[in-house]
Amino acid sequence: MPHFVIEYSEPAAPSTGFSETFEALCRAAVGAGVMKREDIKLRAVPYRDFQLNDGSDSFLHLTVSLLEGRTPNQKEALGIACRAALVELFPEIDAISVDIRDMNALAYKKRVKQKAPQS
Q: I want to staple 42 with a disulfide (CB 3.0 to 4.6 A). Which of 4, 24, 64, 81 is the partner?
């Protein structure tokens, strides 16, 4: 469980895909000390149609949803670390933002299908 969802303007997609970005975000999150690598789920969602009214031509927004319980300082450290990683990887993108969101532990429900052991 934490979920990392990158929303981005389609022309800003890296030509090699997001594997390097996902790896950098995992390192940033683990380095911030608020989660374990094996718990992180990452995905990227492109937007072909968008409008930025501040004159920007491109954007990348990361939403991190995690179960409540981290302190404000922990969430701030996570946000700063993730933003720094994204800025380094995407210097050409006009607008980069990060939003850390708490998920209500009672409302969040999940099922993980157990895989059969491989022989």
A: 4
Contacts of 32 (CB under 8 A, 6+ apart): 74, 77, 78, 81
**Where in the chain are the domains?**
3-103
The C-alpha angle 57, 59, 63, rounded to 5 degrees, equals 165
Say if residues 12 and 89 touch (Cβ distance below 8 Å).
no
DSSP E strand boundaries for 10-119: 41-47, 59-67, 95-103
The CA–CA distances, whole Å, from 110 to 86, 105, 107 equal 29, 11, 10
Q: How far apart are CA 79 and CA 29, in angstroms?
A: 9
Closest CA to 64 of 112, 28, 92: 28
Which class does domain 3-103 fall in?
A: alpha beta
Over residues 32-44, the pLDDT tens digits come to 998 999 999 999 9
